[in-house]
Amino acid sequence: MLADLHAAAERIWEAASPAWPTLSLEVRPEIGSTNTELMNRGRQGELSPTLLAACRQTMGRGRQGRDWLSSPGDSLTFSLGLPLRLDEIPGGGSALSLAVGLAVAQALETGLQSLPDNPTAPAIGLKWPNDLWLHGRKLGGILIEASPAPGLDEGQRWVVIGIGLNIRLGQAPSGSAALQSAWPQAGGQALTAGLVWAWIAPRLLNQVRAFEQQGFAPLQAAYSQRDVLAGQTVGLWATPGQTPMSGHPPSDIGLAQGVSETGALLVHTDKGLQSWTAGEVSVRPQAHA
Fold it and tell me: How far apart are CA 222 and CA 99, in angstroms?
């Protein structure tokens, strides 16, 4: 797998270097967390845009501190660290997570459709605020972290975008989706972490740059076409310390009605139309009574 990722890094550099001449690409056989590594570098003033991938991640983290571990070949885990004027963009990190998810979904579908003799790929859905879904199951997730850092220009923050995708089910939690399960033949070509990384990284870089300049609004319509929550009854957990995983009942239930131009979740409840950002609420689809 290490050679696979190194070969992918070369392809990514060839595609991205004209627009990102200072981009650094690194591959590690094993690491605690790619996000933690790049966050620490930023706090130490190492601010060059960096893509960091690992064959194995032993202390990976998802949203709300959940573990995201990876074994060689079972998943793709990588992070992108770079300075961004995040606080100047409507929706900030919450909107960035949606833009990243859209870029990943589009890149995966384009890559799969490019394989020989590959049937039309089913749409990859997006579950607000940071999950990729396939056939109603979680395929991957996104973790956005941001921090002040020495040497940044005024208005900038050091931002790290972590992405994890299931290539094979392996040790993924029960009920997960994986690319190899959905496309076992893939036109006769093995789906590897390196191949998928080479599909995703160039589009991700382009999307992040466009997001910094234009925000989420130009992406709202494309996101809405993949929004798996839209039109669904959802539970909302807005009480601090209470989440779906903690066993507490939702603090409210309503009908999801898409996302706003700033990436906020729109839900119609008994209190009317409410708007939520990623740090304020957890959300899960609810079975109809």
Answer: 10
